[in-house]
Amino acid sequence: MDHFPILILIGRPASGKSEIIDYLLHANPVERLRRFWVGKPDVLDDWDELTGGNPEYLTIRSQREPYAVFENSDDVTTNQAEQMVSRLESVLSGLWSQRTQVM
Question: Is the per-residue pLDDT at 45 higher than 70?
Fold first, then answer.
């Protein structure tokens, strides 16, 4: 598999989710796959229920899946597109490495 089968983007209000979703949805599909291993994201908004308190893995369809947190306390998602894209690439590269180790 050459992409995340599911990408769940979760965050607090005003944490930059909309900007990241907008970027990923409008990015060139070939570039999006090459840089981020992403098809189309699924967005959920109940973090505690989803994680079950596990800081590294979610259980989806009875399967353990690693997850990563996109830190945005410095608000790189507002008017800082290059920094947002760079951080997104870094976070998803780490997640991809973690996921391929699990498989």
Answer: no
Instruction: Give the Cα separation of 84 and 18 in Å (integer).
Output: 12
> Which residues form the domain of 38?
17-102
Angle among Cα 35, 95, 63 to the nearest 5 degrees reads: 120
Instruction: Please state the domain count of the chain.
Output: 1
* DSSP helix/strand/coil, 77: coil
Cα-based torsion angle of the residue sequence 77, 81, 82, 85 in order, rounded to the nearest 10 degrees: 60
pTM > 0.85: yes or no: no
Question: Is residue 76, in this structure, part of any structural domain at all?
Answer: yes
Tell me, yes or no, whether 12 lies in a domain. no
